[in-house]
Amino acid sequence: MRDYLKPVPGVEDLTDSIRKNPALLGVAARVAAPYALDAARKKLQEKQKEAAQAENDLQIEEEKQAESKAQAEQSAKEAEQNKKQAEEARQDAEAGGMNSAESGTELPATAPLPQMKSWFMDNFGMTGREMTEILIKGKELKVLDSIQPLLLLEKQSTLAQFVGVSPDLVHELPLTDLDYDSLNKNAKRLDLPFRRFVKTWVSAENEVEKENAENLWRTTLDKSERLSHRERSILKNCREVLSSRGAVNAQTLKSYGVQASPAEISSLIKSHGFLFDIISIGQIGKSGRGLFYDIMRRDVILKDADRFLAGLIDSNSSFKFDTRLQPRLEINFNAPSAPWYVDALLKEGITGVKAEGMGLVIEGEMAVRKALETAESHLSKSDQYPSPQMILNALRGDKDTLIVLAYDSIDKADKPRLLRKHKITVDDFDIMKEKVKASG
């Protein structure tokens, strides 16, 4: 037997020998065939699965588009029907200006126009003008045509909110889409100038008088919205802070880098904050520290719950106890947005908080203690009695302080019962109270 390979003329290597040997080639084919067949079958199954998934995705997307189109068509039909009803009911109405004897006829009291001025904002989170711009950019002209009745009703509803202004003037007044947005956003501030403009426009006898009326309206609108570059920068910075941090007061805005005094910040927000969607959300006290600001939003963000609570507690709050030594923190927070801040505080772990009367209320030992501990690092040092820090010490286990605070808080008729319950004489209580006050 040879222990070496003998070269064969015409054969270069092992692979070449198999290729040139019919018997070995057949064996290789029989061995490889099943594996190749399985691989091909597996690949075919994967392709079929991908095709089925793609077909399913396409069907789902077509159904979504069909549903969206149906909803848009239905909304357009309803808007057209509402428009016809409103026009039929108002067919005897004449265009009016100011709601006074010298301004011509007034609008009929019956058949009010459907409230559509916030319909796009409520349903799509944007104005009709912004929706139009998106559809034009996306070349969705058919959809744009279908919502024209809705856009018209939105403008008519905007006009109808001003006393004595006829919605029918929508086809005559030289107002831009931006004008309608400004009227919607600043209806109270622009009420008198706009109604004065409408009266002047309607009573104008020639085109020159109409042009003068329009120029005066433009001047009024532009002047009210004119700001210097520095003032715009201040308000823009305020909006960025409020957007990321949530509701804060002017002093806190300055501490976050707004380059202006708290007084100037408050003044700018009051006069032009609406241009940046900045609003006042609560008057806590008469000082600037008590006025909190936020941006218009559906959900409240409180990334600085500690500062927010500290400002509320320092500005105008009171603590009460019952005979069971259970605390109640009452905060004067006169704002329609108070329920939003209840939800935000609950998300921050402040339990037992609710909107009540003219403010917020936090009840229960655990809830009040959590609120005070959250705000502790930002509470101001004051000589008031009882101070928030004294309340917190009591809730952390200082029983003497707790009894003294409860005694001062409850009704006169309940005071003797409280002392008897804790087996404290009047003389002992007087000594206890002096020590508590001395300790601060």
Indicate the overall shape: extended
Could you describe the largest sheet, including whether it forms a barrel? Answer: 4 strands, antiparallel
Whole-angstrom Rg = 37 Å
Low-confidence stretches: 89-111
CATH class of the largest domain: Alpha Beta
> What percentage of the residues does DSSP assign to strands (E)?
5-15%
Label the structural class: alpha+beta
Q: Write down the CATH topology of the largest domain.
A: Endonuclease I-creI
Helicity range = 55-70%
Query: Which CATH architecture of the largest domain?
Result: Roll
- The residue-averaged pLDDT reads 76
What is the element string, with H for helices and E for strands? Answer: HHHHHHHHHHEHHEEHEEHEEHHHHH
Count of individual domains: 3
Count of DSSP helices?
A: 19
How far the N terminus sits from the C terminus, by CA atoms, comes to 110 Å
Strand order of the largest sheet: 4-5-7-6
What is the β-strand count?
A: 7
Keywords:
alpha+beta; 440 residues; 19 helices; Endonuclease I-creI; Arc Repressor Mutant, subunit A; 3-stranded antiparallel β-sheet; extended; 59% helix
Could you describe the 3D structure shown?
This protein folds into three domains: 101-224, no CATH class; 229-295, Arc Repressor Mutant, subunit A (Orthogonal Bundle); 305-439, Endonuclease I-creI. The protein has 19 helices and seven strands. Helix content is 59%, strand content 8%. It is α+β, with helices and mostly antiparallel strands and 440 residues long. Helix 8 runs antiparallel to helix 9 (207-224) and helix 16 (388-395) packs across helix 17. Strand 6 and strand 7 form a beta hairpin.
